[in-house]
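Key idea: predict the complex, not the pieces.
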Amino acid sequence: MKSYRKELFFSTHKRRQLINITPEVEACLAESKIQEGFVLVNAMHITASVFINDDESGLHQDYETWLERLAPELPHSQYKHNTYEDNADAHLKRTVMGREVVVAITNGKLDFGPWEQIFYGEFDGMRKKRVLVKIIGE
Amino acid sequence: MKSYRKELFFSTHKRRQLINITPEVEACLAESKIQEGFVLVNAMHITASVFINDDESGLHQDYETWLERLAPELPHSQYKHNTYEDNADAHLKRTVMGREVVVAITNGKLDFGPWEQIFYGEFDGMRKKRVLVKIIGE
Amino acid sequence: MKSYRKELFFSTHKRRQLINITPEVEACLAESKIQEGFVLVNAMHITASVFINDDESGLHQDYETWLERLAPELPHSQYKHNTYEDNADAHLKRTVMGREVVVAITNGKLDFGPWEQIFYGEFDGMRKKRVLVKIIGE
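Result:
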């Protein structure tokens, strides 16, 4: 069994932002030379997400509106977590979106359906944060 | 390390439908002859889900009602994604339910608790769609 | 490839409770002697969750309030599942929080960001329930 590990770094210019990281994950997979196995991609921070969905700007605006409805940022005072912090909503938004994805590797490629793309979902950004890519296989 | 891959196909007769796919996944596992490892089962489409819960019809009706409350289908015009499409709600519903499950394999069986069953959750159906089963182990 | 399996048992004194199980998972990993691989930690019951977030009591109160807003327990009669049972809300809450986490293992340690902790999320407790820890790697 072979294994591979890399950290990816992101610093968004907005509090909330979605970034397509599929090319970075594909580059890791090529570097690993693993042909069959699993890749785990996870946010290393608990106010961010890694998820798979469509790279379509209308849908990304829908995510913003929808997450603000399910777990609104304001008023900050509505959350017990927000005594010394203001990011309780980001913890909840990341919970809806998920921490991680596991993707099959087949013949050295991400084994994806037609529209699957991997996103980093930042919900408390404007600072340097990390994503872990770990691959195991042969 | 051994690996195994199979695609399962589903075409529902309703827009939204939950299908118990545990027998199909067990058949894949038997065919793989893998005794110890992990099986990844994921929707290959971004408006469908694979998740684990109870095979109980009342609960399945509760899921329908609850998902319609969290991410209603109508009016289609409430979503920016719905310019040439009408399935933004299906992207959001799948986000709540999750893309994938990873299940342990022990002694050649799905290592499940008493009521765990694997479901395909379709939220934009009435056309042929795919689920990936990928197994790694020994 | 090596594999390791252990069940952890929990019996909460409240219907809903969050328990930090990171030390138990670290003990499993040490016992497994696996240096590189993946650990899967999943609830074996469908009204409980395993998830990763912050060990901060204010946030845990926010989770309770938020989950009660998204999927309220009462009245029990609002759910079709609640004919002979009263835990439909627990199935939905666990759906939001997720069944499982997959964590990378690097150099014999959980490969975590600064604040990541693994929690057992119980939503229908006061009875003995199980979590599965399964590790594969080398």
